[in-house]
């Protein structure tokens, strides 16, 4: 098999938001496909209609596109292996289910939910593994026909071969084996005519020529059932890789109880798509020896990604590291693109961005102080609010030294064509030499005059953002306080 034939799929259920764990699975599939010049397929597993959420598919596609994880085949994109919604493939599943029945690899079962519950209750009392007791295997052909003719509801179950051992090699976890006697006779076709994950998954992966299945480790225990199905159909088994869970810092499974877990939530808070992709790629994967950096472009990740470097152990979701990484991306982001991204957050924070020249300066000033775009309004407000002074602060400004500092600063700024961060700092040094005043006594009056606050960004940044006219106006107001 050549690299050109590699085909992988991301197969989510449309049950709502895109969970970070699902995003990581999609990302690993995408990187694997691109690294190997293969195909990345999106398939929607919507056979459980009761859990389907309206608009979830559209949201999913939009999120993948926004993150740059463009798929080669699937809904909207189309392809030769469609349809890509499982709900549109029901006749296929029925056809292959009938084939299993005719070959003796599956059988009808007619138990009610009450009977199944009683079965489990008895097994629990006896200390046995709770699973279907295979009683449906023993029905005669006539008994099955009679029940079917009577319209009794049924499911179709997999006839697991007994007293055998299933062995397979996982690309991440190595060799795995399990006794077939421990494997449940899994339901393949439900009473409503819809297939279970196990049947639909195997049929679709085969018909769509999937060569590598990369999915979460929660499906590892289902692999023996799938291998039994592949063998029953006489099909080759794709190579498999089961990626580790994403964990909370306390090593529990990542869940909404401990914070946001939806990709959309992180994007809405102002995590940049490039930072999120970078961070998620490093959850459970490492680029190998000699790569001690942590900032990788998508192109870097594609070049470096191999499934062999995915760890078998769980990966801890460190929000502090994500915040740091996102902050690094913000600092180095294209200024014009960053401005367009930040403006909606500023507007939502009640800041008027109609003066685009000032907005450009504000974005330049705040980007070094924020880790998320939604933090921008809090850091930007200092450049828009009126100076408000308490009695204590007024007293500081009324001091003769403060008045001297402000007067000298004003005269120096008047002679400038414009204020920049570079030409403002030397002015402070000059004032220190001329007056002998330094430290807090020098900086505090200037900061209070320009912002009314005792703490904040560098004075050069504040002066640059406010601009020459506004700085002079605020200095004059402060000088006249006496």
Question: Brief description of this entry?
Answer:
The chain is mainly α and 482 residues long. The protein has four domains: 3-75 and 246-316, HUPs (Rossmann fold), CATH 3.40.50; 89-243, Glutamyl-tRNA Synthetase, Domain 3 (Glutamyl-tRNA Synthetase, domain 3), CATH 3.90.800.10; 333-376, Helicase, Ruva Protein, domain 3, CATH 1.10.8; 391-479, Orthogonal Bundle (Arc Repressor Mutant, subunit A), CATH 1.10.10. It has 19 helices and eleven strands.
Which keywords apply here?
482 residues, mainly alpha, Rossmann fold, Glutamyl-tRNA Synthetase, domain 3, Helicase, Ruva Protein, domain 3, 4 domains, 46% helix
Summarize the helices and strands and which ones pair or pack.
Elements: E1 7-10, H1 20-35, E2 39-42, H2 56-66, H3 90-103, E3 106-109, H4 113-125, H5 141-149, E4 155-158, E5 165-170, E6 174-179, E7 187-189, H6 197-207, E8 212-216, H7 223-233, E9 239-243, E10 246-247, H8 263-268, H9 273-281, H10 298-304, E11 315-316, H11 319-332, H12 335-348, H13 356-366, H14 376-380, H15 391-398, H16 400-414, H17 421-435, H18 440-451, H19 459-479
Parallel strand pairs: 1-2, 8-9, 10-11
Antiparallel strand pairs: 3-4, 4-7, 5-6
Helix pairs in contact: 1-10, 6-7, 9-11, 12-13, 13-19, 16-17, 16-18, 16-19, 17-19, 18-19
